[in-house]
Amino acid sequence: MLNRKMDDDDDDIPQLSSHTLAALQEFYLEQQQREGMKTSQGFNQYSIGSIEEDWQLSQFWYSDETASHLANEAVVAAGKGGRIACVSAPSVYQKLKEQDGKDFSVCILEYDRRFSVYGEEFIFYDYNHPLNLPENLLPHSFDIVIADPPYLSEECLQKTAETIKYLTKGKILLCTGPSLSRCTCWFKKR
Questions:
Q1: Exposed end of the chain (fewer CB within 10 Å): N or C?
Q2: Cα angle at 147 between 123 and 44, to 5 degrees?
């Protein structure tokens, strides 16, 4: 919020309110701390927040606790030697990569190309083209698919569902909002 002082010597220069200025300073401090963590020794490229959320891409990372819980559920569901696909769920992918990983393999299907830093495990994914996948990504080749469609729309969920059906052997961990719960009934009929 901008306040205008009525003093003649301010020349109508807009100024931030004290609350807005404090919030902005807190934001900058947190940003500096994150950057400091990235350049410090022992930085983990897989930690949640190593790649920041991009709200323009509708990215909102899970808390560390939620991502850990979802990752653990996926590992148990995949079983020993299982394959896990994370569709638009990068913070779960990152949490899986923090684990030992000897008993499972994981890949990330994501629109945001910043995740290509994860090498061959990264697969570019655009939900608008749900089956535009690499040839080496065979149908029904994942023991579990964990998906968090990027938008809370029926269209996005339906298109993401096409990808899920193609990839999974049968197990699905779907994360979406309550407004779309009525649209997920096809998962229950499988």
A1: N
A2: 60
